[in-house]
Write a structure and sequence with these properties.
The protein is an alpha+beta fold and 396 residues long. The protein has eleven helices and 17 strands. Strand 8 and strand 9 form a beta hairpin. Bound molecules: zinc ion. Zinc ion binds next to helix 7.
Length: 396
């Protein structure tokens, strides 16, 4: 097919033939292609892709409220290389991963479908879906896209490959189709950076000064943890589910807030009950530091003066300051310095997720949080084994 041919007015059916690879027998695609039978593929030129998008957008397929739709773009060279080297087709690879994403999403009550699978000529520009480009130039019947632009892509060589799946792909779909953020962006490290710690942290064991938000036992292995997550856990489950209750599924602009920052959705007031193991702490004073990260993640610093309160009257919005539509990544982590009645100090790291979760569980006004504190001087050399779990209650 030469470039000049694309100036000819093509029917929708002809466009589909040009655009699509036959995926006969694969359930995720049959829905759109069942009437087309076996067809040949011919990689789309830029003009053809632009026309295809125009054509689809003139009469976009409807979107169900419980389903997210993705379109996949593969450059010709990647597709050809794959079919020469692999034992199974690109379509089978893709289909198995789509199945895995569906399995992961199930707890949130969503399905995941492939809308279009398009082979494009090398060098063709594909609209991005991590910003509003997608609204102007993308496919109206898809929530986002994934573009296999790495010419050497080999799922088996991905560092996220396990049990036959490259979990890096669902993770990228998490960004580009579900518009969700990386949880590891909440990691903080107050060691070895020349950070001047406040006096109340004097003598803190170095192991208490590192926060691995993505690896916390109560949050780890999530789709958005890092790239190797194999499930969706409480946070992501509630984050996606609340889009339906708040009525903004498929509202691209609104969903994008979940990608650009963290939701300004937390209880008005929190009572905190701290424990050292089984022992409840009698807390006299709570100092709350925001642990900032500069956008380039090179600098970490503490809020100059802490937000001071009692554990019975913690007001999240005083510690987590919104910027426009969301809370910035760099400002979404809190370090709580806890003084008990005997003058002993404890620490507790928390982040925005710990306050979004109760809100999404219905605690919009008040919540009591029961959580473990770290003794300031104890060695937590295995921070992953710390009991991070938080209990949320309507009464103290
Ligand atoms: Zn990521």
């Amino acid at each position: 097919m030469s470039e000049t041919d694309s100036s000819v007015k093509l029917t929708r059916r002809e466009f589909l033939k040009l655009a699509s690879v036959s995926l006969a027998g694969l359930p995720f695609f049959r829905k759109n292609l069942k009437d087309l039978g076996n067809i040949d593929y011919s990689p789309l030129s830029q003009t053809q892709l632009d026309k295809f998008i125009e054509q689809v957008n003139s009469n976009p397929l409807p979107k169900e409220e419980d389903t997210y739709y993705a379109s996949f773009f593969v450059p010709e060279s990647v597709y050809t290389r794959w079919s020469k080297k692999s034992k199974y087709s690109f379509e089978i690879f893709l289909n198995s991963h789509v199945g895995e994403v569906n399995k992961m999403l199930k707890p949130a009550g969503y399905k995941f479908l492939v809308r279009w699978f398009l082979v494009v000529q090398d060098g063709v520009a594909v609209p991005a879906s991590w910003d509003e480009t997608w609204l102007r130039e993308g496919l109206k019947d898809s929530d986002g896209r994934y573009y296999f632009d790495d010419p050497k892509y080999d799922p088996g060589k991905s560092s996220y490959f396990q049990n036959g799946y490259d979990y890096g792909l669902p993770h990228e779909i998490g960004h580009q189709v579900f518009h969700l953020k990386d949880h590891y962006d909440l990691d903080r490290d107050l060691r070895w950076k020349g950070i001047v710690l406040p006096l109340s942290l004097n003598g803190a064991h170095y192991s208490t000064l590192v926060y691995r938000a993505a690896d916390r036992a109560d949050q780890s292995n999530d789709l958005m943890s890092g790239g190797n997550g194999t499930e969706i856990r409480t946070y992501t489950k509630l984050q996606l589910a609340r889009r339906r209750t708040q009525g903004f599924v498929h509202n691209f602009k609104r969903e994008l807030w979940d990608y650009e920052g963290w939701p300004i959705e937390f209880p008005q007031r929190v009572q905190m009950k701290f424990y050292d193991g089984a022992k409840p702490l009698t807390v006299s004073k709570l100092e709350v530091y925001t642990i900032f990260n500069s956008p380039d993640k090179k600098d970490t610093f503490l809020s100059k003066s802490p937000y001071v309160c009692t554990p019975d009257n913690f007001i999240p919005k005083k510690a987590l300051s919104p910027h426009g539509n969301y809370i910035l990544n760099g400002e979404a982590v809190l370090l709580l310095v806890i003084k008990d009645k005997e003058g002993k100090s404890y620490l507790r790291w928390t982040d925005i997720r710990d306050f979004n979760i109760p809100y999404w569980q219905g605690f919009t006004d008040n919540v009591t949080m029961r959580l473990q504190a770290m003794s300031l001087t104890r060695d937590y050399d295995a921070p992953l084994s710390f009991n991070w779990g938080i209990g949320y209650y309507s009464k103290p």
